[in-house]
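Appendix C reproduces, verbatim, an entry submitted by the partner laboratory led by Prof. M.T., so that reviewers can inspect both the input and the predicted structure.
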Amino acid sequence: MTQQLHHTSDAFQKRAHPIVLICDHIGSPANIGSIFRLADSFGVSHIYFIGEHIAIESKRMERTARATHKIVSYDVLPDATSLLPELRGKGYAVVALEITDTSTPIHNYKINQEQPIALILGEENTGVSQELLAQADTSVHINMYGNNSSMNVAMATGIALYELTTQLNHV
């Protein structure tokens, strides 16, 4: 009989990946909590929350994050003015997760194994800001087949991190 494994007995190898997330004005406590949980699950090294009024601490965020906000390192910055040049100076590829007129389906995006990735995520209603899109090296999107052209930011983050870490782990 198949036995379900639990987080204390799983068979997964712990790995850290050279990926940071840049959350562009994502303020929903549920989305913030989900992003923390996903970042922990996929071995993301750091999260940057960009925006004036990003409230990390809330009961809803803590319930959703399930204590991963205590494990994953993060910063809250009022804007990304110096962040992207700083990351680029450290060798990061800056990739926006956004449907644009030049975006590539994420499953076709080829990672340079020697270069860490800064993945920009946009707020649910407005997406990645034009300011950050202009500073990205490239943009990638998730192919969708229904009537809607967008999905919840946490769901999109999970799909993107799966695609990126799959490439990183299958060298």
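Helices lie at 29-41, 59-65, 83-89, 130-135, 153-169. Additional entries are available on request from the coordinating office.
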